[in-house]
Amino acid sequence: MAKVAFLGLGVMGYPMAGHLVKAGHEVTVYNRTAAKSAAWAKQHGGRAAPTPAEAAKGADFVMACVGNDDDLRAVCLGKDGAFAGMASGAVFVDHTTVSARVTRELAAIAAGDGIGYVDAPVSGGQAGAENGVLSVMCGGETDVYGRAEPVIAAYARICRRLGDTGAGQLAKMVNQICIAGLVQGLSEGLAFAEKAGLDIEELVEVISQGAAGSWQMANRHKTMKDGKFDYGFAVDWMRKDLGICLATAEENGASLPVTALVDQFYKDVQKMGGGRWDTSSLMARLRKLG
């Protein structure tokens, strides 16, 4: 059992921190909105701290799950940042989806203070966080990862080190690239089926057992059919992630034509007022097009 700080109590971080308590760890939380930290502490019996530095004092591990590169820098750096409160030998684990560039930048700063660093973005959405079955993709030094893995296990179905610092973020980019194309294909297929007069439930029951089957088909086809798009990862966040993918592709020379196209489709969804809809709302765009 370890002393753990958790920074960021959004739809992912709130339940993830709760799983750490259930696993027997001593947990202190920080959130930009203090009321949410207080509510979490009341529910789970942990402690709330007013700053990342205070949360990190005495912690063996500091986990973060915030919004973007700038948010991550804000909770790590400065006199109130987590690094200021962490002792040499402690480990920082970042579950935020950010650029590999900021990951390497912060890992280098942490190393200068004797702090270990693991980039560990997650996949599985809100449901995966709530049920403790996230897929966690990690980068960092082998020994540092080895220390962190048993703690991450509190909310992971699978956790793997995929390489040195930044490898976790690069793996998460692959994850988002694959999802973007898949959801667009599923949306087009279901929209075509509607136009063709096919029964969606009967259709999916058949094709999901073959090569077309996917997690998205199994878990999103009903809500897509019903036009309900408040069950998962928001379009605004997906566009943030795809922006990271496309920028990294410019750096490494990868070609991402489908990803770039789907990113523009999500931009259309934002213009429809769907920034907070989940990513399956590409279906709504196709319906609007007729």
Keyword list:
55% helix; 6-stranded parallel beta sheet; 14 helices; N-(1-d-carboxylethyl)-l-norvaline Dehydrogenase, domain 2; alpha/beta; 2 domains; 290 residues; globular; Rossmann fold
Topology:
Elements: E1 3-7, H1 13-22, E2 26-30, H2 34-44, E3 47-48, H3 52-56, E4 61-64, H4 69-76, H5 82-85, E5 91-94, H6 100-112, E6 116-119, E7 122-123, H7 125-131, E8 134-138, H8 142-152, E9 156-161, H9 167-196, H10 200-207, H11 215-226, H12 235-252, H13 257-271, H14 282-289
Parallel strand pairs: 1-2, 1-4, 2-3, 4-5, 5-6, 8-9
Antiparallel strand pairs: 7-8
Helix pairs in contact: 9-11, 9-12, 9-13, 9-14, 12-13
Q: Which outline best applies?
A: globular
CATH architectural arrangement of the largest domain: 3-Layer(aba) Sandwich
Number of helices: 14
Number of domains: 2
The rounded Rg comes to 20 Å
Average of per-residue pLDDT values = 97
CATH class of the largest domain: Alpha Beta
The SS-based structural class is: alpha/beta
Any idea what the CATH superfamily of the largest domain is called?
Answer: NAD(P)-binding Rossmann-like Domain
Give the helix proportion (percent range). Answer: 55-70%
How large a portion of the residues is in β-strands, by DSSP E? 5-15%
Query: What fold name stands as the CATH topology of the largest domain?
Result: Rossmann fold
